[in-house]
Amino acid sequence: MPKERTPEEVYDDLITRGLYEEANLDKDEVEKIKRISIEDYEFGKSLRKSNNANWRVIFNIHYDVLRQLCDQLMRFKKQKISNHQGLFAFIVLNFPELELNWDFFETVRSIRNRNKYNGKDIIKEIWKKVEFQIDLYTSTLKKEIERRLKHM
Questions:
Q1: How far is CA 50 from CA 45, 57, 61, 64, 66, in A?
Q2: Distance of alpha carbon 142 from alpha carbon 144, whole angstroms
Q3: pLDDT confidence of residue 2
Q4: What 3-state class would DSSP assign to 80?
């Protein structure tokens, strides 16, 4: 089992490999993507109430929303990256005032990767372990993006 890396180790490695790229900060684009992400989030929330909920689909919708919101927040630093671990490391390190937990991001990223690359299903028990924090982080990221948009 590989040793867990710190956000600093991930960031430094990806900086060295040139994976962080310069990105434009386009206010309209950030607003649109934030709005679409929150629409997806609300749809995902409505699926949770279903009698025969598909927890894999619900998890993946919420994971994508988290990733998209982090990607838009990263634009305020005029940076972008396609690597999810690098994205989350950047957010944790560059927005410490949000007090986002690296281990949580690594947990949801690992759940997603085991599903996408190893075919491990995501059952209700797995979803329930991350649900509260996903909701909290979605709200935190949304508010921070809105706060920054207001000051542009």
A1: 10, 12, 15, 20, 22
A2: 6
A3: 56
A4: strand
Query: What is the gyration radius of the CA atoms in the chain, in angstroms?
Result: 16
**10, two tokens:** 């991930």
Q: What is the dihedral of CA 35, 37, 39, 43, to 10 degrees?
A: -170
Per residue in 14-73, pLDDT (tens digit) is 999 999 999 999 999 999 999 999 999 999 999 999 999 999 999 999 999 999 999 999
- pTM given for the model: 0.96
DSSP annotation of 148? H
Of the CA atoms within 13 Å of residue 74, those in its CB half-sphere come to: 24
* Gap between the Cα atoms of 63 and 46, Å rounded: 15
Classify 21 as helix, strand or coil: strand
The pLDDT score that the predictor gives to residue 3 is 67
> Do residues 66 and 138 make contact, with C-beta atoms less than 8 angstroms apart?
yes
CA distance 130 to 117: 20
